[in-house]
Write a structure and sequence with these properties.
This protein has 213 residues and is of the alpha+beta class. The chain folds into three domains: 4-79, no CATH class; 83-114; 117-176, no CATH class. Helix content is 43%, strand content 15%. It contains seven helices and six strands. It has a three-stranded antiparallel β-sheet with strand order 1-2-3, with helices on one face. Helix 1 packs across helix 2 (69-79). The longest helix is centred in the middle third of the chain and has 27 residues, at 83-109. The termini are far apart. The relative contact order is 0.08.
């Protein structure tokens, strides 16, 4: 596990790597495509030069919970990777999945109970994929807050069961909402219908005239 000093040192190196590749004082980069109405996830990089020749990097994003200095560093680093480095990274990812599958098989052979579907975990990106990309990561994190999320390192996760319960609660709430009845239109009362079969009220101040022929 890395110490605080090691983390700060790494962050400083990543910031220096980023600043060396900025051509203007303010740069916007897009780190993830998005769909309407939310649009892509972007990061604004602002570079301040100090009097002693040092620099200060300010990172602003419309998805602050998802993107930070590490994600920006990966963005610039991957743009400079060679084909050999890409092949090596792909091979390492494949090996990690093989190890994961092997650990699962060994656990099953040792009699460890299989984790049910409701106990599996979802990330914010999984929730975005569930909605076919029609929501942004920020909204996905807000949904996770309603599902009692857990922490795994720096990642925020929710179980499949809690997410399904959230969906059921939303459906029940829609069912409980009363349907609005259409306003009734009162038909106008005609004079003949109002006075038919009724004698005039003597209290009303009307005078009736009999016309002579």
């Amino acid at each position: 596990m890395m110490t605080v000093d090691q983390i700060l040192t790494d962050n400083r190196k990543m910031e220096q790597f980023i600043c060396d590749r900025l051509r203007t004082d303010r740069t916007r980069i897009v780190l993830a495509d998005g769909r309407r109405p939310y649009g892509p996830a972007w990061v604004d990089l602002t570079l301040f030069l100090c009097d002693d020749g040092d620099h200060e990097l300010v990172i602003e994003s419309n998805e602050p919970d998802a993107f930070g200095v590490r994600e920006v560093y990966e963005h610039f680093r991957r743009k400079e990777m060679t084909g050999w480095e890409w092949e090596r990274e792909l091979a390492a990812e494949i090996n990690r999945w093989k190890i994961h599958d092997l650990e699962r098989e060994v656990g099953e052979m040792q009699g460890e109970p299989k984790r049910s579907r409701s106990e599996k975990f979802l990330t914010a990106q999984d929730i975005v994929d569930y909605y076919d990309g029609k929501i942004c990561l920020r909204l996905a994190y807000q949904i996770m807050d309603e599902c009692e999320p857990v922490r795994a390192g720096k990642k925020r996760l929710v179980t499949v069961g809690s997410f399904e319960e959230y969906l059921r609660a939303g459906q029940d709430e829609k069912k409980e909402q009363p349907k609005e009845e259409a306003p009734r239109i009162q038909e106008p009362i005609t004079q003949s219908a109002a006075t038919k079969g009724k004698r005039p009220n003597p209290d009303l101040e009307f005078e009736f005239f009999r016309f002579q022929r």
